[in-house]
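Researcher: Structure prediction, please.
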Amino acid sequence: MKKEMSNLLFVLPVVAIVALILIFPLFYGGYLSFFKSISRGTARNFIGFKNYVDTLNNDGFYRSLIRTSIYTAAAVFTKIVFGMIFALSLNKRFRGIGVLRGVALIPWSIPPFVVALIWFGILDWAGPVNSVLQSMNLGTIDWFSKSTALTTIIMINIWKGWPFFFMSFVSGLQAIPDELYEAAEIDGAGIWRSFWRITLPSLRPVLLTTMLLSTIWTFGEFETVYLTTAGGPGEATRTLPIQIFETAFSKFQLPQAITQSIVILPIFLFAIFLVVRLMKKSEGES
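Model: Predicted structure follows.
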C-alpha cells in the first residue's frame, strides 16, 4: 500500500498539470457553450442547448464539414502515397543519401504561413506557373477561382506535409530486418509481393500513427487556407476552421464557435479509438 501511494504521489503532479492544461479548458469551453454571449462587461445569458440545436440545424456548418472532410481525405491519402514512394526510393545506402533526405524534409521545416505566401505568389495570375503555361501556349489558370481553389489548397497541403510521412516511413523501414526480404527472395517472391506481405504489415503501426496525426492536423489546418483564399471565393474553401474563426471573430459569436468545435470532437475521439484498436490488433497478430 505504501509503495502504491508513493507511486501515486510521483504521478500526481503530472496529472495535475495535464488536468490544468488540457481537461480544464475543455470542460470550461463546454460550460461557455451554454450561454448566448460572453462579452466582457455584459451579463451571461444561459440558453441551455440552443447553440447545439442551432449548430446541428445550420446548413453552412454541414457544408463546411463536408468540404473539410474532402480536403483532409484527399490530402492525407496523397501524402501517404508520396511519402511511401520517396521512402522506398531513398531507403538505400549510397553517396549523398543524407543530403537527399535532408532536402526532402525542407517543405516540412518551413512554417505554414511562409508556405502559404510562397505558393500564393507562385500560383498568382502573373506568377511563374502561369508564365510557363503562357509561354507554352497553354493559356493561364486562375488557381484561386471558385472551381479550382479547393484543389489548389489541397496541393499546397500535400507539398507541405508529405515529408512527415517520408521520414516516418524511412524510420520504420530501417527497423525491418533484411533477413525477411532475403527469405522472401529465396522463396521466389517479387518486389510487389514482398511489399504487400512484409513491408506494409511491418509499417502498419507507423502508418496508422502518422495517418491519425496528419488527419488531425489537416482537419484543423487554418493558416494555409486563410492566407491563400480566406475561405473564398464564396464558400469554395470555407473549411471548418475558417467557419469557426469567422463565427468567433467576425460575427462575435464565441459560444456558437465553441459549440461548433465541441460538436466535431466525437469525430476525433472515434478516429483515435479506431486507430488504437487497429494498433492493438496489429500487435496481437505480430
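Model: The chain is about 75% helix and 0% strand.
Researcher: Thanks, that helps.
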